[in-house]
Design brief:
Distance between the termini: 59 Å
Largest sheet: 3 strands, antiparallel
Radius of gyration: 24 Å
Structural class: mainly alpha
Order of helices and strands: HHHHHHEEEHHHHHHH
Strand content: under 5%
Number of strands: 3
């Protein structure tokens, strides 16, 4: 409730803490005051190594479990349920930094064209107009797929100074401007395609979602991912992921000279350190351009 976590995240933490309690019971520890830092470290080691009932976890999954344990012990101390915090000095393991997979501007254009016709095509199938509008919106705003599928009509402003209000992780709101391509694709979809999709539901009250499925209900995250995946296959980009357009949005903004703090706000990152991973991509690109352009870059 306090952190606004998704139900799936809460369930993951619950599963981690159940496993923690089981490991502690195997060590003969049944009371909070009996737990030591060595017990927490032993739990982390058991996560990575696995046991008869569980396979060893990846670094990211083990880190999540340790974070759940640290949260438990910090809570018990603040609530006066325990005098010490045995997990405070046991940091979660750091996963290797993986660069987000961004695609080039040309590949983005191929992906968008493969999703559906442009807004000027008056004979376009309604669902293809929706698909094009969805992908234009994702690339034009840097929104997560879940933010796009959760978007309602009253959170869009397409007239003067087009903006959208997005609801991100933890229920945090942010306002993001939209470019002309996304606006035109959305207008074509909302005027020529969405009304027909809305009537398919047969319900007295229409669904408020911007993006509808063929039955007139809210397009699900899985449905949106299916739209992206199908367009990527047609465009010859089979490795595209749900975050492909979001990563590409951030990378292209930084390549174009945007300040990292601005990109942080647009993406809805709580910390700029999360956004800084994109600077690694642009530095790699600088190296490539330097190596191919400077007459004395290579020996």
């Amino acid at each position: 409730m306090e952190r606004g976590l998704a139900a799936s995240t809460v369930e993951s933490y619950r599963r981690d803490l159940r496993r923690y309690a089981s490991v502690l019971a195997g060590r003969g520890k049944t009371r909070l005051g009996e737990i030591t830092p060595a017990d927490v470290e032993g739990f982390l080691a058991s996560l990575r190594e696995g046991d008869a009932e569980h396979a060893g976890l990846a670094v990211s999954s083990a880190a999540r479990a340790v974070i759940a344990v640290r949260g438990l012990h910090a809570f018990t101390v603040t609530q006066g349920l325990a005098a010490t915090d045995p997990a405070r000095e046991v940091p979660p393991p750091s996963p290797p930094r993986r660069l987000p997979k961004a695609i080039s501007v040309g590949e983005v254009e191929r992906l968008l064209d493969a999703a559906g016709p442009g807004p000027d095509d008056l004979s376009a199938d309604p669902r293809l107009l929706r698909d094009r509008a969805l992908l234009e919106f994702l690339y034009g705003t840097g929104a997560r797929i879940s933010e796009a599928t959760g978007l309602d009509l009253d959170e869009l402003q397409l007239t003067t100074d087009p903006v959208v209000r997005l609801i991100g992780k933890g229920g945090k709101h942010r306002v993001v401007p939209m470019g002309g391509y996304a606006v035109r694709a959305l207008e074509a979809y909302l005027v020529r395609a969405r009304p027909g999709l809305a009537t398919a539901s047969g319900r007295a009250s229409a669904c408020p979602a911007v993006f509808l499925n063929a039955r007139g209900g809210r397009l699900t995250r899985q449905g949106a991912w299916g739209v992206l995946h199908a367009a990527a296959i047609r465009a010859g980009l089979p490795e595209a992921s749900p975050h492909t357009l979001r990563h590409s949005f951030a990378t292209h903004m930084l390549d174009g000279g945007a300040d990292i703090r601005v990109v942080q706000e647009l993406l809805g990152h709580a910390s700029v350190t999360t956004t800084q991973v994109y600077t690694l991509i642009t530095v790699d690109r600088l190296r490539e351009v330097y190596a191919s352009s400077h007459p004395r870059a290579l020996a």
